[in-house]
Write a structure and sequence with these properties.
Largest sheet: 5 strands, antiparallel
Radius of gyration: 30 Å
Number of strands: 12
Distance between the termini: 46 Å
Strand order of the largest sheet: 1-12-9-6-7
Length: about 650
């Protein structure tokens, strides 16, 4: 039981690891050293691989391979939960190895790893995983210019359509469009790009819309429809993340090529210069090489031969530099890969030797055990009945004590892991200086949790209440927290209503693998706040939003309540899309997100008779009375009030209250 509980809660760490971070890598490395169970080790190894593959392919491959070795050493197993976990992680390890080998240019090996990943995912009915792997295989065949790319893209499209993964469906449409564009079938390419664009508009996904408009611009350029291409590239730029200079550099280069094709050389010059400036700022050698060659060509077309020669020489210098960098990187990578393969061979030899030694030891132990057993049976027959009964009782007592100690230790370790993955109070206050979090689990671990992500100038903040509390609630919170992280960090969704729609699909899909028709899920209050405009967007599943406004001209403090959709994040009757409410906050407004634990607590004057519920009306009055206090004082007074109200009575539920002031 201990290893199972630890593994489930470590999922919180794994799905929080979305970007490389030295502190996070150090923390995971420390957890890997301290981990006592293989279920924990494989999850941490896969997490480290998913972080490292963007910067250090060989180290990423090492962790994915270690994860795969652990899974294969533990499979098959008779424990259904462990079998599910190790098979799921085996699929993740193989998929990671496929990604690494594709980036190393070893495309045949990448396909082999993806196919093995498919076998593991199909075994445990991981429908979304199968759809993702089909998509990865199609990308490899696209690099090989093999027609199988369309077969696998269509398979991925079918699955992603079935599970309602709209962003995944759009990615398939873009892949199919690119494949047909490369084959010169422009009508088919246009068909799929337009379908992707419809999804981008429907979901208000700017990143997806920008990518699709770029693809449409390239297609229009190939058909020499330059006005249309220019329009598409400008629309892509409107939706793009302009804080990324590489995006700006690519945009200006794209439209420079179009302007040159249209004969608008002044515009082509200006855009190419601008593109080169951005590439200089980010130190992108390949971009500098391409812009130098473009400037040389433009000067030559104006018969400015000295400038053309200067930029052509500049192009050659960047080309030589790029070749040197790539050659050095390739040699280093080749050397590290060779070293890794040698280490793998050494590990295998060591493993085989240890296995042989263990078999010999096992045979000796079995032989000794048989002799001991025969002797023990001989002595056992001479024990009196009362002595035998006393031994049985003592054995049962010891077993119960050990089991209780294991359970207590597992839950305590689970608490430490759960606290580690929650956003720190310092991180919340750094994003929102005038804020507080009141978090009071009923048991050692909780079903309530608070969640935060920062995307550019927008802070996403939520208070969630998962089904149950204690260990069952914490297990459900693993899936729900993962759903929020995946919706924002992988799918790029920032609209609160769309995030809840996506999270609901993921939660339902996760629980649908169980044939017992699990109806677990969560109620949640989720908002986004723009740090410069104070524009608040909010959506809720069963839990409302309260905004307390400071004294008006009548010297009255008011509380505005925004109602939530009456449906959970999970299975429900007649589900509908979640509504996003947009509110312009004013200076002094205080926003409160909360679960139902505070208002449902029993207590008050008649505690000796069981007390009564606090209820929402009294909770509102309490918040109104605290409006003039600083945020830190409000947190202390809320905690003091809760403890005074509860007194010696039992806390009936987890409590989570999050507040911030603009």
């Amino acid at each position: 039981m201990r290893s199972t509980l630890t593994s489930l809660l470590l999922l919180l760490i794994v799905y929080a690891a979305q970007a490389q971070n030295t502190t996070l890598l150090d923390s995971l490395q420390q957890e890997l050293i301290l981990a006592q169970h293989d279920s924990s080790k494989v999850i941490i190894n896969n997490a480290m691989g998913s972080i490292l593959f963007r910067s250090d392919l060989v180290e990423a491959m090492r962790h994915y391979q270690d994860g795969l070795n652990i899974c294969e050493a533990n499979l098959p197993t008779t424990d259904p939960l462990l079998h599910q976990l190790f098979t799921d992680e085996k699929g993740a390890s193989l998929n990671g190895l496929g990604i690494v080998h594709r980036r190393l240019g070893k495309l045949a090996e990448a396909i082999a790893y993806y196919q093995r990943s498919l076998d593991a995912q199909k075994e445990i009915n991981d429908t979304m995983g199968v759809g993702t792997t089909y998509f990865n295989i199609s990308k490899v065949y696209q690099e090989l210019e093999d027609a199988k790319q369309f077969e696998y893209a269509e398979k991925s499209l079918e699955i992603r359509t079935m599970v309602g993964d709209s962003i995944g469906v759009a990615n398939c449409y873009n892949a199919l469009g690119k494949g047909y564009r490369n084959e010169g079938q422009h009508d088919k390419a246009m068909y799929y790009y337009q379908k992707s664009l419809k999804i981008a508009v429907a979901t208000n996904d700017k990143a997806l819309g920008s990518r699709t408009y770029v693809n449409l611009g390239v297609l229009a350029q190939k058909e020499e429809e330059y006005e249309l291409a220019l329009d598409y590239f400008n629309k892509a730029f409107t939706l793009a993340d302009k804080s990324k200079k590489n995006v700006l550099a690519k945009h200006y280069f794209n439209i420079a090529v179009v302007y040159e094709s249209m004969g608008l050389l002044d515009s082509a010059f200006a855009c190419t210069y601008q593109s080169q400036q951005f590439y200089k700022e980010i130190g992108r050698t390949s971009g500098l090489m391409n812009t130098s060659l473009r400037l040389s060509s433009l000067h030559e077309s104006r018969q400015q031969y000295d400038s053309a020669l200067m930029y052509f020489k500049q192009h050659n210098q960047y080309s030589d530099s790029l070749f040197s960098e790539e050659k050095t990187r390739a040699l280093t990578q080749q050397e590290m890969t060779y070293q890794f393969e040698k280490e793998q061979e050494a590990r295998k030899l060591k493993h085989d030797t240890e296995q042989q030694e263990q078999r010999m030891i096992l045979l000796g132990v079995v032989a000794i055990a048989i002799l001991v057993l025969v002797f023990a049976l001989f002595l056992y027959r001479r024990f009196q009945i009362t002595r035998r009964q006393k031994g049985i009782i003592e054995e049962q007592k010891q077993h119960l004590e050990e089991r209780n100690n294991d359970i207590t230790a597992s839950i305590a370790y689970a608490k430490r892991l759960q606290e580690a993955i929650l956003p720190s109070i310092e991180a919340v206050r750094e994003a929102l200086p005038q804020s507080f979090v009141l978090y009071l689990p009923k048991d050692i671990v909780a079903g309530d949790f608070y969640w935060m992500e920062k995307v550019g100038d927008v802070v996403l903040l939520a208070a969630a209440d998962c089904t149950g509390h204690g260990v069952p609630g914490a297990m459900v919170s693993v899936v729900c927290s993962n759903a929020l992280n995946k919706s924002v960090n992988e799918m790029g969704i920032t609209d609160p209503g769309a995030i809840l729609d996506s999270a609901r699909n993921i939660v339902i899909e996760r629980f649908s693998r169980n044939t017992d028709n699990v109806k677990d899920g969560m109620d949640i209050s989720l908002c986004s706040i723009h740090l410069h405009t104070n524009e608040l967007k909010w959506a809720g599943a069963n839990n409302p939003l309260w905004i307390v406004k400071p004294e008006n001209k009548d010297r009255k403090t008011t509380l505005v309540e925004v109602k939530a959709n009456k449906q959970p994040i999970g299975r429900s009757t007649n589900p509908a899309p979640f509504t996003t409410h947009t509110i312009a906050l004013e200076k002094g407004d205080t926003v409160y997100l909360f679960s139902d634990g505070f208002a449902d607590q029993f207590g008050g004057p008649n505690k000796d008779k069981g007390g009564k519920k606090l209820k929402s009306a009294n909770f509102k009055k309490l918040l109104l009375s605290l409006q003039s206090q600083p945020m830190a004082a409000r947190e202390k007074q809320l905690l003091q009030f809760f403890n005074d109200w509860k007194g010696s009575l039992e806390q009936i539920d987890d409590v989570c209250v999050v507040g911030f002031c603009v």
